[in-house]
TrEMBL record:
Entry similarity comment: Belongs to the protease inhibitor I3 (leguminous Kunitz-type inhibitor) family.
SUPFAM superfamilies in the record: STI-like
A Pfam family assignment: Kunitz_legume
Organism of derivation: Artemisia annua (Sweet wormwood)
Gene Ontology molecular function terms on file: endopeptidase inhibitor activity
Signal peptide: none
Annotated protein name in UniProt: Proteinase inhibitor I3
Length: 206
């Protein structure tokens, strides 16, 4: 599961959105797959009707953007988000579970055969909520990024591992796609959500 060289990182580089603008802290962005025909953006949904916290999943239809997420640097108080810096990723929606909207990776009983899946309900600057973005050179002329979990970069980490882990999509037994740590590269682009209202009271998947 550690990253395998198909993506690269440079801490000096600023992350850019799909319009070529610098990625701003605290601004909601849709997280969309780079390649069309592979489904829509990231969203939140329940494994069962009353389950909490909500899982981070993919919209099944290409035209569905999902819900917006904010990306906030953990270490430096900067306006821009930089590559390979530890960040907190937070869903910009109302959580019906009334918990934290911060994304974390955990072992969830959602049918993904033991993969560590992403849910919300995390805490900022904790190992299980410690992510970074690194550039994935997959399509010329369009910046795409790989989300990685890097537990050692945040909080008090008792592990001696200095590995980062790719975060991509894993399907359960009925074909629903969950965000989880996986060896598969999942390049994404980030689209500013201000073309529509930045906050939504609910999601179509709940």
């Amino acid at each position: 599961m550690p990253h395998n060289g198909t993506v690269h990182s440079n801490a000096a580089d600023v992350i850019y959105d799909s319009a070529g603008n610098k990625l701003l802290r605290g601004v909601p962005y849709y997280v969309l797959p780079l390649f069309s025909g592979s489904g829509g953006g990231l969203t939140l949904s329940r494994t069962t009707i009353d389950s909490c916290p909500l899982d981070v999943t993919q919209e099944p239809f290409d035209l569905s953007k999902g819900v917006p997420f904010t990306i906030t640097p953990n270490v430096f108080d900067e306006d821009y988000v930089r590559e390979a810096y530890p960040v907190t990723i937070e869903a910009d929606v109302t959580d019906p579970c009334r918990g934290s909207n911060i994304m974390k990776v955990t072992t969830s009983d959602n049918g993904t055969k033991g993969f560590k899946s992403a849910t919300i309900g995390g805490e900022s600057n904790k190992p299980e909520s410690c992510f970074q973005l690194v550039e994935a050179d997959m399509m010329p002329g369009l910046r795409s990024y790989q989300i990685q979990l890097c537990p050692f970069k945040c909080g008090t980490n008792t592990s001696t591992s200095l590995n980062c882990y790719n975060v991509g999509l894993v399907a359960n037994d009925v074909g629903k796609k969950f965000l989880a740590t996986t060896e598969v590269i999942y390049p994404v682009v980030l689209t500013n959500s201000f073309v529509k209202p930045a906050s939504q009271s609910s999601t179509s998947s709940l």
